[in-house]
Each structure stands twice: as C-alpha cells, then as structure tokens.
Amino acid sequence: MTSAQRQSVGKPPIDTRAFDLLGLTMLLVLGLHAPHLPWWLSLALGVTLGWRWWQRRQTSGRVPRWLKLPLLVLLTLAVTVQYGSIFGREPGTVLAVGLLVLKLLETETIRDARVGISFACFALMVALLFDQSLIATMLVAVGLLPALATLRALEPGQVATDLPHALLPGLLLTTAALPLALLAFALVPRLSSPLWGAPSPDEARTGLSDSMSPGAFTQLLIDDSPAMRVSFEGAPPAPDQRYFRAYVMPAYDGFSWTYRGSTNVAPARLDVSHSIDYQINLVATHRHVLPTLDVPIESPVGATMGRDRVVTADKPIDEAISYTLHSALQYRLEPELAVDRGRWLQLPAGFNPQAVALGQTWRRQYGHDDAAIVRAALALFHDGGFRYTLAPAPLGRNAMDDFLFHTKEGFCEHYSSAFTVLMRAAGIPARVVTGYQGGYWNKLGSYLLVRNSDAHAWSEVWLPGRGWVRADPTAAVRPERVSLGAGAAAGGQLGWYRSDWLQGLRNQWDIVNRWWDQGVTRFDALRQRSLLTPFGIRDVDTTTLGVLLAVSSVLFIAIGLAWALRQRPARDPLRRALRELERKLSRHGVTRQRGEGPQHYLRRAGRALPAQRAELAALTRNYLELRYAHDQPPTEPLRAFQKAVREFHVAVVVK
Amino acid sequence: MRSLLQQIQQVAERRLPALTRYRRPESLPIELHRRRIYIVPSGFGIGFSILLLVMLVGALNYANNSALLLTCLLGAASAASMLVAFRTLDRLRLSQIRAGNAVAGEPLDLILAFDSERARNAIRVDLGPRTVAFALDGRSSTELKLALPTNRRGWQPLPRLRVWTSWPLGLFRAWSWLHPEQQVLVWPRAEATGPSPLAPADDTRRRRLHRGDELAALREYRPGDPQRHIAWKISARHEHLLVKNFEQPRSQPQWQLDWRQLGELDHEARIARLARWVNEAQSRRANYSLWLPGNEIPGDSGPLHYARCMSALAQMP
C-alpha cells in the first residue's frame, strides 16, 4: 500500500523540494548571465538568492513587503546607474535577471513557482543572445533540467525521490523530444529580415582595429577566441605564406598608424603567377573589413576592394559570414608606383630623430640599392639584441627611438612600426599591414583555425621592378612567430591555460565548434532554402517548409501516440509454458484446435501418443491445478511445471 | 463563471449524452482507456505556449539559432509531456470500492482501490469540491479515502468521480470520469432529544450492581480490548499484557424497540426515534431487539447487531 496521499486545500505552499529546485534553476540562470552582469550585481543577487533559500528553510512564508520594495528600487537604481537607462538589451537583461531573483522572495504558491519557471525559461533563452556557442547552448540546455524538475515537483501526490532522480526524468523527456525539436529547428521558416530593430552590435568590439599604436594589440594577442576558419581548395599554403591581410596603414602621426579607406579608387595592378582558392568563415566583427589571404585577386560579392587591396564589406559584419575568394601567393603588386609616392614616405616632423638619422645613414651607405637597405634593417633586428615579448617596457614620446635604441623589446607592432619608420627615413616607400598570420591546421576537418591571438602586423616595402614586397621584421627577431605561431613565439608568457598540450586539445576541440557554427549558428534562410537539394528540390519556399513541418509533426505525433498507446501483453508464464507444450505436440501432428480446452486437448494428445499418456496426464493435472486452484499460480509448482514442459520430449514412435 | 460553466456542462450532458460521453454507471473494475480519456491544455499550459511563441519570434527576429533550438526543444518537450499525461491515466484501474457507515448529514468514508501494472504519479480524484492526490507504485494497489457527503438515509448511488492529472509538467490536464454502479447505505439520522424507550424498571439498578470492579479473572490482552481494562500493575510482572475480565451481568433484560409503539409519529420521525433508541441501547451495551414492518431482528448486542439494526432502519421505505 503506498501512502503518498495528500489533501489539497485552497492554495497550499509549495514543498521544500520544489522550492530547492526552483532556487537551483534561478542560480543556474544567474550563473549563465554572470559573464555580462556587473560582478557586484551578480554577487548581490547571489547573496539574495542564498539568503532567501536559508530563510525559507527556517520558516515558510513570503518575504515582507517592507523588505521587498526597497530591494526592487535598489535593483532599478543599480541598473540605471550602471547603464544609464533600463531599456536596451544589456540593461533590460540585467533587470530581468534581477527581477527573476526577486520573484523568488515572494514565491510561495504553485502559481508563483510556475510564473517563476516560465520567466526563467525566457531568461535562459535571453542568455543565448549574448553567446550562442556550443558550450553556452549546452549549459542553457542543462539549465532546463531543474526547470522541468521544478514543474514536476509542483504536482501533488508523487513518490518521493532524491535530487538526482528528480532531475533525471527531465533529461529523458528532453532526449525523447530532441528529434522533434531538431526537425522543427530545421523546418521553422526563417525570417529574411528582422521584424523589429536590427540586432544591436556588441558594445565591446573585438578583433583587429583600423588603427595601430605599438602596444595596442596586447589585449588581442591574449584573446584566443576563433577569428575565422579557412578551408582551401587543395593543399593549404605553407606556414610562412599564411598572411591574412586586413588593413593597410599609410598614415603615421608619431603615435599610431591609421587606415584610410580608398574604396573609390581602382585596385592597384597585380601580376599573378600562382594563386589559390579558399573559403573563409568569419565570426562577427562588427566592422567592415574582410581579412583575405595575401594578396586577394578580387573581392567577394557584397564587398569592394580598395586601392591597397584591402577588402571591405558594404555592411558591418554583425553575423558570422562566409565568403569564397582566390588570392595570389606569388605576385607583383603595383610594379609601377603611381603618383602619390609621397604618401608612402610621410613621416611626422619632430619625432624619432635617431631613427630617421639611422635611415638616412643607410641610404648614404648603400646608395640606390633599396634591397640592401631592407636587408640591413632586418639584420639590425636579427642581430641588434632585440627581444620578443608580449609585455614590453613602456615607450616615451619618441617611441621608435626608445624602442630601437633603448628598450629593444616588443612584439610585431613594435617591429613593423619601427621597420616602416626606418624605411621611410631611408626614402623607400613603406607601409604597415595588419591582419592575421599563422593559424592551426585542423587535419580532421581540413581547415585552418585562425584565432584573434594570431593577429599580426608586418610591413610592405616598394622596391623598383618588384612592386610591394612583404617584409616581416618580427620574423627576423623571432622566426618561430611565423613558422609556429603566436603561442610558440610568446614562450611561457601566456599562462598555464595556453600550455602546449592544452592548446593542442583546444585546437582539436575547435572542430566541434566549427561544426556547431556551420550546422546551427549559420543555418539561415539561405541554407534552409537549399535544405532539400539532396532530394532534388532546389528551392524550398516558406509554404513548402510549413507543409513539411506539419507533415513531419504529424508523423512524430503518430510515433508518440504509438508509444503512449502501447500495451505490454500481460505476462502469464503458465500460458507460455502451455504454448510451448502445444508447439512440441503439434510438431507431431497433435495441434490444438480452435475452441478446444486444454484438458480435452491434452487428453487427445495422450490418446495420440500412448507412450506418454501418463506423463501428459500428470501435466494436465498440474496445469489445471495451477490455473484454477489459485488466484495467482504459486511460484514453486509453476517452476516445476515449466521444467516438466521443457523436459517433455515426444518419443518418436517407430511404426 | 464557474457555476455557469457547470450548468452548461450539465445541460450538455443531459441533451447530448453521446457527444459529452456521459457515462452510464458501470460495474467494477473500471479500466480507463483511450476512448474515455480527455486532454486539454491547462491555463498554465496556454500561458506557457504564449511564452514559447514569444521566444520563437524573438529567436527568429534576432536570427539566433541557438535560441531557436532551445525554444524548439522546450516546445517539443511540452508536447511530449501531453503523451505522458495521457499515459498516466491510460490503463488505470479502479478495482474496488468499500464504503464505511455514516448517518445522514455526515460524510461517509469511501475507500477506492486503484491499481495498475506500472508506476504512476500525481493522479487526482475529485469528489465534489475535495481533491485527493495519490501515486501508484505499479505493484500493489493504492487505497484512497474520500469523504462522500450525505443528506438522507437509504441507498445512495455513488456520484461521478473525476480522475485527472496534470503530470508531469502541469501543462496539460488529462481527465476521465468514473461512474461506478454501486450504492452506499446511509443510516438514518437519530432525533436529537426525545423520550427514552420503555426499559425494564430494574435495569439501571442491576447494571449498577454489576459495574463494580469485581475482578472475575485475568486473561491475555487481545487486540480490541479497551485500554482501561488493562491491568497495568499486574502486566508489569508478566510477559504479556493482562486484561481484567469483569463479571458480566448474568441476565440482562432485553430492550424491545418496536415500530408499533410509535404510532403517533409520522414515518420519518418514527425512524429517527428508533435510531436514537438503537444508539442509546448500543451506548449502554444493552441487549435489544428491533421490530420493523416486514423485518424482525431478534435481541442481541454488539457492533454487528447495531449495524444490522441501523441498516434495517435505513432501508425502510
């Protein structure tokens, strides 16, 4: 007799288990939102949550109003102070999460708890607007488990279980629902344009910037989130050719180099001798520039190429995109320098006198041999006691002088900047190029993973007859930077989490991210339209999608109903044993007829097989006894009967 | 609002029995099956679907596929919970009903035994305004105690019981009607005050004589013995509890309760008075007999006799 009975009268308070699960759900929501909440607010909300949980343990009941209202005011005030307004995505989210936690303070009845759970589900979805990576989605899906468990715990009259077992059914339910969810995901028609307000770009811009001052990359170089993934037609280029061009920076003001867009001018002439086709999947950067393998031959659709072969998209890249290009690996860029030669020789007056003097010295020393000057500069970096470090000493007003003659330590920005200044001082047209270099070749997925930490800056110098030639002074100091990547060049400066084996693991793991990115994140209206291409349907319109969705939903409902209506046949071991006996007998011609009772049948069998009449009579007696003398056949005699049936063999009668 | 809905439901059931599947009383055991389980979204379910819709539009608008996937997952899980709700009731069996005894106007205890082959949770049974929730473990049957309100004596048919569940998530409400073809007997309500029955004159004196604490013997405790008869002091020295056996009155005069004595009263008042007398006799543990038209119950005492007398009174036309 189970005694899980409970009377429900009026609006009963929810029990401890349901409240614990609700608190757990809220905690998970808070945890998922913590990365974009101010830390002090996360902490305050966490403490509130913990306190409420403890308080509810002591005495059940709502938190008094005089405590609730000030908390509400405080929350609104905090959000306003932090963001200046309570509207917009970030402040709105923070407010929603805060309200959710405060809702727990007044949660006492089933209705409260249900409202809280619905709201928590919504907040879980909102967390995905900030980060929709695989890990984030998985975490949010895990957050559904306590939410579902809470809803279950709200139902009265159930068998008590411990906490892990309370979470398990939610997992089963979601797993069972997964096929239908995936189907709906694939078939729900996507919007080709948003219904309201375009998604607001991230406040914090990551990725390459269109200006560069030595030392500015440091943040980028320790950010190892993926920047793009590149797959090549055929073999990938050699590591020292994996330069991805983003910005070309001609202007130098003594502090920083800046990019000037020049999209209305035709691209400079490019003589190609060897080219490669590839596709780039770029994560959202919220900028216009599209990195391309050095040097791009033409621009993809929806983008234009500037004079310096910098490719910029017409709209900012607010969502991950992919584009196909081909680039020249061996080339001559702009063999005849056009009129604005002075643009590439510009140096701010009154800065870096020592560096300028050194450049002029080289010019006097080598005469017209520009290549020799370049070699001299690279030799200086190689042999002049320079050191590669991500944490260089700060530089003064004459930054390049300080770097070249005093500190002698820095990373790619310092080297390319100093090199370009020296070249311009010697009268050689030169410019800084920023972009990415290197990347990790994922063999499993045959693609090159380029992280933000692979950001790089190098120089281009113009040599008569050869055009713009890439010169990477960083490679002169630290050849590993180019051949092995940023991590190798930095040595032990990057902390334990960038150590080799871990980095290797992370690089391997990236294939999952890429799969997620391609399969889920970028499954847009366009991809959806070509969904049925393998089945010969070239273009799927919204109506077809709707019909498909309806049809397949019906299919799933049918499967579900089949499961729900399935009935296990009642287990009757006695009946099974009798069936076995019937099979054995029918093999020898004694088949049970329709409407023939077991007693008659076995008696007939006994007449047909006189050698075993006694045995059959005993079996009949046992069967009738088991069947009719008890409500349920007792175990021991039943076993004996089963054994007897198993051991019964029809003796072959020789006639 | 609620009463209006109930009225509409009643009219619909009267007029359109086939449509509303008004079930005639049926004999036990009753097994629920798909033809008699109904399922609709609950209020919470409707609210939750609106929320899902908002989430869907939001995810589509922001072209956020992870959020869309989450919404789809939640929606699919909700839909699947409908099947779970159905399965909670499907093949549920009401195997027997036992009724207690009660006088008219007092609630009568109904004990419903449910069983099923698999474990089920959060099944609720509505009887009038009261709801009782229970779980089944799939092995033994669960007995459920319900209080049935009564108002008049006699055989009373069992009302329709609604068995329902919103398991597992509270999004859907599945229900079915149970209308067992069984009647319970409600005893008549005794009148509040009135004259005593014509008892033998010396009855009280004799009883007093024999009420002394004259111990006749001690015997071993049997379940059901009154606690105050236990000889605690003596029991302390023995292995078992011992009970004082009082000397019974040698010959107790019989109370003869007779329908015919109450000629001056009307029908129901006679029954009420007889009921009071039977109560009184029972509480004094007297030996009494009851004469009713067409039913003569010889003198006896004890709870069985009491029940027999009260049932006879209840069944009076």
Describe the 3D structure.
The complex is a heterodimer of chains A (655) and B (317). Chain A has 22 helices and 19 strands. Chain A has 655 residues and is an alpha+beta fold. In chain A, a hairpin with a 3-residue loop joins strand 18 and strand 19 (467-471). In chain A, 48% of the residues lie in helices and 14% in strands. The model of chain A is unreliable at 1-10 and 200-205 (pLDDT under 50). Chain B is of the alpha+beta class. Chain B has helices at 2-15, 17-20, 43-61, 65-89, 203-209, 232-235, 267-283, 303-314; strands spanning 30-31, 38-41, 93-99, 108-115, 120-127, 130-136, 142-148, 154-157, 161-165, 172-178, 183-186, 215-220, 242-246, 254-258, 287-292, 295-300. Chain B has a 5-stranded antiparallel β-sheet. A 4-stranded antiparallel β-sheet of chain B has the order 1-3-4-7, with no helix packed on it. Chain B is elongated, with a radius of gyration of 29 Å. At the A-B interface, strand 1, helix 5, helix 6, helix 7 and helix 18 of A face helix 3, helix 4, strand 5, strand 6 and strand 7 of B. Strand 1 of chain A pairs antiparallel with strand 6 (130-136) of chain B.
Indicate the topology.
The complex is a heterodimer of chains A (655) and B (317).
Chain A lengths: L5 E3 L7 H18 L5 H20 L6 H19 L5 H17 L4 H21 L3 H20 L9 H25 L23 E2 L5 H4 L4 E7 L10 E7 L1 E2 L4 E2 L11 E13 L6 E2 L1 E2 L9 E3 L5 E3 L7 E13 L19 H14 L3 H14 L3 E2 L10 H9 L1 E2 L1 H14 L4 E8 L2 E3 L4 E5 L3 E9 L3 E5 L1 H5 L1 H5 L2 H5 L9 H22 L3 H5 L12 H24 L7 H14 L11 H11 L4 H16 L6 H13 L8
Parallel strand pairs in A: 13-14
Antiparallel strand pairs in A: 2-6, 3-7, 3-17, 4-9, 4-15, 5-6, 7-12, 8-11, 10-11, 15-18, 16-17, 18-19
Helix pairs in contact in A: 1-2, 1-4, 1-5, 1-6, 2-4, 3-4, 4-5, 5-6, 6-7, 7-18, 9-10, 9-12, 10-12, 11-12, 19-22, 20-21, 21-22
Chain B lengths: L1 H14 L1 H4 L9 E2 L6 E4 L1 H19 L3 H25 L3 E7 L8 E8 L4 E8 L2 E7 L5 E7 L5 E4 L3 E5 L6 E7 L4 E4 L16 H7 L5 E6 L11 H4 L6 E5 L7 E5 L8 H17 L3 E6 L2 E6 L2 H12 L3
Parallel strand pairs in B: 14-15
Antiparallel strand pairs in B: 1-3, 2-10, 3-4, 4-7, 5-6, 5-9, 8-11, 9-10, 12-13, 15-16
